[in-house]
Amino acid sequence: MKNDSRIVWDMELINRYDLSGPRYTSYPTAVQFDPALSASELVHQGQNSADKQAPLSLYVHIPFCAHVCYYCACNKVITRNRDRAQPYLETVYREMEQLSQWYSDDRIVDQLHWGGGTPTFISDSQMYELMQALRRQFNLRNDDQGDYSIEIDPREASPETLDVLRQTGFNRISLGVQDLDPQVQQAVNRVQPLEQTQAVLDKARQLGFSSINMDLIYGLPHQSLESFDKTLDVVIGMNPDRLSVFNYAHLPDRFRSQKHINPEQLPSPETKLAILQHSINKLLDAGYVYIGMDHFAKPDDSLALAQAAGQLHRNFQGYTTHAECDLVAMGVSAISQIGRVYYQNEHDLAAYTQAVTQQKHAIRRGVCLTDDDIIRGAVINQLICHFELDTTTIEQRFGILFNDYFNQEQSELTQFEADGLIQRHGSRIEVTPAGRLLIRRICMAFDAYIPKQQPTRGYSRII
């Protein structure tokens, strides 16, 4: 399909459909992961259903942060004691060795991502050591043609660190920015001068990193339409290849650090929506393509090109160009997708360490996908990545009659069509410019695990 970034802002539809719902980084979502499933069964099913000729994607979770950002909902360990990193890495190496025996099969690693926490919390020598360990256990590329990325806190990245990252094979970085307004930064305990971010950006470009992403967050304390517009002006001027504009969900009962945020300082729901609408329009006017949900990319970026070619995919790192890869994840709370299996590691650092020490792996819970999961997951992935669906393709791929198989979903699709969220033309379902903001709600129609006609719990708001 051709890229079409148009968005129509329909407040009546938004008010009606903006419930809570999954982000569909997997289907079934992590809510369905079952701790009663044994690790041996999950691994067995994964090995037997994996395509051993296909490339791999690797993920390493590094949970440590030297400072707490009050808005953060990631699985993290706040410490200034850098000595905690080495014992954790030793545990990761032990887990990595087991994962290599299970899944490597000399499959080439086309995608690698380090996330956190703050991956650059570890020292330059530890980064080098971690990458060497990965190269010993897995078939990493040496031609700079892979998609090797890392999340960077500009406060924790010296020019020497960027040198090490580039030398060891990274070619993409994601910079946490969130907001450039000093008052907002103070309120969320993330004081990060523009000069610091600009220095990392300039060094990364000098070193030849092929893609640079920046993360922003709307809905933080003291933000206004005017203040966030100034942040956007500066960020657009910095010219990143990709931008993520995330919604801040204030859930202090779930995330302890958010208790430090004064709810009276948060922008109103109306202001948040105005900020989002303005951000989308401003980024489109600046030449970015609306990939979906929170993500934007330049037209020549690989994400936009993959979407234009109908090859975009979605996994636990968000939108990706590597649909064919099994995802092997290591570290505390990391989630893997191998063949027809999803599973997640222990979420607590002590439990993760003990599990790897005693049994060489840390698998805590997971799910084995049924045929129905595969079919519904394919439909959801196609809609959330491309805003359109050819039902004939689904019929041919899975040997079903679409309207018969999804008979119970037809009334909801009819309602979506009547409300202007989708259009149906024969075998094609197209999400309208008014429906794109509500794509998660449209995907929920195909989710067999969500009770129909009632709000969902445990998920963030759609917008």
Automatic annotation (TrEMBL):
Keyword Zinc-finger: no
Name of protein: Coproporphyrinogen-III oxidase
Pathways per UniProt: Porphyrin-containing compound metabolism; protoporphyrin-IX biosynthesis; protoporphyrinogen-IX from coproporphyrinogen-III (AdoMet route): step 1/1
Keywords, alphabetical: 4Fe-4S, Cytoplasm, Iron, Iron-sulfur, Metal-binding, Oxidoreductase, Porphyrin biosynthesis, S-adenosyl-L-methionine
InterPro entries, A to Z: Coprogen_oxidase_HemN, Coproporphyrinogen-III_oxidase, Elp3/MiaA/NifB-like_rSAM, HemN_C, rSAM, rSAM_horseshoe, rSAM_sf
Catalytic activity: coproporphyrinogen III + 2 S-adenosyl-L-methionine = protoporphyrinogen IX + 2 5'-deoxyadenosine + 2 L-methionine + 2 CO2
GO cellular component: cytoplasm
Subcellular localization, as worded in the UniProt entry: Cytoplasm
Source organism of the structure: Nitrincola lacisaponensis
Stored Pfam families: HemN_C (PF06969), Radical_SAM (PF04055)
Transmembrane segments: none
EC number: 1.3.98.3
Family: Belongs to the anaerobic coproporphyrinogen-III oxidase family.
List of residues binding [4Fe-4S] cluster: C65, C69, C72
Assembly description: Monomer.
Cofactor: [4Fe-4S] cluster
UniProt remark on cofactor binding: Binds 1 [4Fe-4S] cluster. The cluster is coordinated with 3 cysteines and an exchangeable S-adenosyl-L-methionine.
Domain (Radical SAM core): residue spans on this chain: 50-285
Binding site for S-adenosyl-L-methionine 2: Y71, C72, A73, G117, T118, Q178, R190, D215, A249
Biological process according to GO: protoporphyrinogen IX biosynthetic process
